[in-house]
Amino acid sequence: MIKPETVLANDPVAAAVAIVLVQNNKILLGKRIKNGTFEGWQCPGGYLLKGETLQGAARRICLQKTGLEIEGIRPGPFTNNLFPVTQPEKQPVKHTVTLYLLAQPRKQNKADGSADDLSGWSWFEAEKLPGALFMPLSLLREQCDLAQLIDS
Fold first, then answer.
1. Which of 90, 100, 117, 134 qualifies as a cystine partner to 76, CB 3.0-4.6 A?
2. In terms of residue numbers, what domain contains 55?
3. Cα–Cα–Cα angle for 105, 121, 44, nearest 5°?
4. Cα 72 from chain centroid?
5. What is the pLDDT, as a whole number, of residue 51?
6. Whole-number mean pLDDT of the chain?
7. What pTM value is reported for the model?
């Protein structure tokens, strides 16, 4: 756990948008790899740009990351993410807030929820997510019942 005093009061907190993309009671996840290191499975997500609406960010991010257009966008929960730092004296604490939105793909893929055209992305049942989740998604899973969230 990061101590609050290690985060400077004037450090900005980045707003991220993640889309819980639902189809046939399954959630779309992709492998997050940064600098060649696997960081866990995640929902399509990215940073909110200045002046952008949450819905606009969700559409942009899904299209850029998955190639899918989305519809039925509605607000979801959020997570407050304080990422652990291996060398606090050399790197600042990374702090983001992830705003989750729920949506469906505009075009339905195969009836079983698979999407062969989504390279690097896979559909998972909410109760059967892969073990290694990106930290914000892991926090979301701790905060709420994903199966109930996607059914609402």
1. 100
2. 19-151
3. 60
4. 17
5. 96
6. 85
7. 0.82
Of residues 37 and 46, the one with the higher pLDDT is 46
- Dihedral of CA 139/81/45/99: which sign? positive
Q: What CATH number has the domain bearing residue 46?
A: 3.90.79.10
DSSP state of 16: E
Distance CA 99, CA 101 (A): 7
Confidence at 118, pLDDT banded by 50, 70, 90: low
Helix (DSSP H) and strand (DSSP E) numbers for the chain: 3, 7
User: What number of CA atoms fall less than 13 Å from residue 58's CA on the CB side?
Assistant: 24
CA end-to-end span of the chain: 32
As a whole number of angstroms, the distance between CA 62 and CA 29 comes to: 11
CA 85 centroid distance within chain: 20
pLDDT beyond 90 at 120: no
Give the separation between CA 74 and CA 54, rounded to whole angstroms.
10
